[in-house]
Structure prediction request, 560 residues.
Amino acid sequence: MKEIIFQILKKAGITLKEEELEKLLEIPPSSELGDYSFPCFILSKKEKKAPDKIAEHLAQKIKLPIEIEKVENKGPYLNFFVNKKILAEKVIGINANFGKLPLGKNKKIVIDFSAPNVGKPMHIGHIRSTILGDSLMRIYNFLGYNSIGVNYLGDIGLHLGKLIVAYELWLDKDALKKNPVQELLRLYVKFCAKEKSKITEGVEEEFQDNEWTNRAKEKLKLLELGDKKTEKIWHDIRKSSEKGFNKVYEMLNVDFTETVGQSEFSEHGKKIITNALMNKIAKSEKDGAIYVEVDGQKKFILRSNQTASYITYDIGAAVERNKKYNFEKMIYVTDFRQKDHFDKLFKILTLLGYDFSDKLIHLGFGTIKFGNEIIATRKGDIILLEDVLNKTIEKAEKEIKKRKTKGDAEKVGVGAVKYIVLKSSPSADVQFSWEQALNFEGDSGPYIQYSYARASSIIRKAGKFNKSKINFDNLNSHEINLVKKISSFPEIVQKAEESLNPSLIANYSFELAQLFNEFYHACPVIGDESEAFRLRLVDAFRTTLKNSLYLLGIEVMEEM
Ligand code: ARG
Prediction:
């Protein structure tokens, strides 16, 4: 619909670009003011006329296609009224591909997400990256792109040095077999407790000088040197912890195109840095540490003992991925606290002579807050993702029993977590509460899933579509609202893609479900004289909601 209005405005001689029109076009607060409204203030300067006059003039001059019923000027606004008959006809004709567009043909989008650290359990912060990244992949694929999901495991770094020390000292083999995540966490926590008393406050971890941290650094060095015994332990830790991660990915139904350890890019990174040193782009400190100057400050890219650091690996990985995929865009989905790291990374790549920095995006997200919830899942001061999921599923099960409804507790629980995470814009914090996540009557995953099941039940009961001729002349306001909302789905998906913001789709899903429920309460379907139309409308709603939830990674149920 918007496209049609843009065309009308262009034909009327308005020379603004489509993006600008897109930003300007409003949805009026009430239907008396039309379905879309174009404010004419912006034209006033160029035409040297009052905006009211411009609106008046345009309203007279504009020629309307059949999709638009009428256009009216109201003050400085030009109000468009969509032809509801034609819109309703279109909406009931949609199919399962509704919303898909071939925008990204042959274009690759790399999405670096989830990326937990080996040896540590996935904490609640990783949930946001995992759920957001998965949703972005779905959105890009839906729009015809080829999205490549990379799980960049933090399989190297001081925390692994620590774990190797702890593994040698305190490992309980049976416990590792039974519950790898828990045993590794126990080892890590025990190490940290020992180390804690020796730590010098205010000194960066890298520069800590005490017996425990030094032992961890030693192990890390041994690992880099390829020491067989250390390597074996490292492999074991990595394998065990991947088992734990995979359990969570299965629960969340999240897939990656590739899972790759950060450590694999050590050599690539170092080679690039050595070249930069030769070309005098990078410089060496007296102690051997290598840095580049970014924004007038030294940024170290290789440690004094010539071991790689977080940024060394990322330099190597970015260059390799560009070679491998020749991507249109690469999006890193992490906590906003890594903003500085990625800002510097992108600048350093440019300094090093790579020309793809402008294709790199850091999508930083806010924190998940648990407020005053009592969390029985606290272990070693972190909230474990697996525990949150299990607890939500458990609570969903109880709720389903209490309401004596059907429904798969796992789908409801996982959907509830995904929805509460995705309904906030990435940049905003998420306030997690079980009460809200599982509120079947509120702005929640279960509420939306329930609306879907309700629609399915109507279709099931009807058995087959009523073939009587549909009369589009007397649509009521509930039907019109639902028709309009359904028809805006493709626009929402595109906007979500452009702004890397699945919350637009989450909020859309909720609003759509709400309008459906209003319709459901006001308009009988089966046996009504409008049955033929209403059944098709219910079915179009189902298709649209299913697609919309699919993009969030939330599963629907036919019965609930
Ligand atoms: N492993 C890191 C963490 O848990 C995130 C890695 C993000 N990706 C990257 N290419 N640096 O914080």
